[in-house]
């Protein structure tokens, strides 16, 4: 039986793994991908030690640091369920994926979040046929074309700023009366001659033939059809917490943790964007991952 299984290899999970390795904890790291949402970010200007670095480059730095330790890392393996072991099987937990089951004394959930869908006609039909949830991944496909970014927070502003360097024109479609996000990002978007901001704009339908050709919206209640080749949905995200439905979660599905990253179930810890920690930032997630493993270490010492 392992001492610990860490689920997720974003900033929280990777930092947790580094701290666990330094603490000589017997653990494995299991994740569907490496880097999490960091790898999907464009420009990172608020991570200590780097005045500027791209998201993929920062994710590569995380991996480089991780590889300095002899960590057992099962990449490309999505966890599907966490269960309590039967009392007669020695207690603890079983972390299950489609490939294996890992018995452990404690669990750290750092599974992050996934993009939220719009839920409008045409979205599912044109997914990966013009509809994308990652400007960093798919932006280059729309070079010199007209695109729309849906949303008004930091993720939408980030996507719009990426696309001004690639696309001919960018519509920023925001359902709110004014853009949110950081002021410095708002200013960059608002002064760009390639961006047209549509506030009070409700997305109605995504249309096309084989691929996206237009986006139907209502701007202050008036219908309008935007001729676009690509649509980037940036309306927030959903925590990947379904694997732990036995711990307390809030109305948004986030795992409730205390200041020591403990959940409502003894031996189960959580860190990063999947939790109720209010600020979803790379540097915050990394710090929470470190703090969580220090808590796990204390817990294991008490148990032993």
From TrEMBL:
Q: Which residues form the FAD/NAD(P)-binding domain?
A: 3-289
Q: Which SUPFAM superfamilies match?
A: FAD/NAD(P)-binding domain
**Which Pfam families does the protein's record reference?**
Pyr_redox_2 (PF07992)
Please give the InterPro entries that the UniProt record associates with this protein. FAD/NAD-bd_sf, FAD/NAD-binding_dom, Ferredoxin-NADP_redctase_2, Pyr_nucl-diS_OxRdtase_2_AS
- Any idea which UniProt keywords this protein has? Disulfide bond, FAD, Flavoprotein, Oxidoreductase, Redox-active center
Q: Which GO terms describe its molecular function?
A: thioredoxin-disulfide reductase (NADPH) activity
> Would the keyword Flavoprotein turn up in this protein's UniProt record?
yes
TM regions (residue ranges): none
Q: What is its EC number?
A: 1.8.1.9
The entry sums up its family as follows:
Belongs to the class-II pyridine nucleotide-disulfide oxidoreductase family.
PANTHER family recorded for this chain?
Answer: THIOREDOXIN REDUCTASE 1-RELATED-RELATED (PTHR48105)
Q: What protein am I looking at?
A: Thioredoxin reductase
Q: Which organism is it from?
A: Velamenicoccus archaeovorus
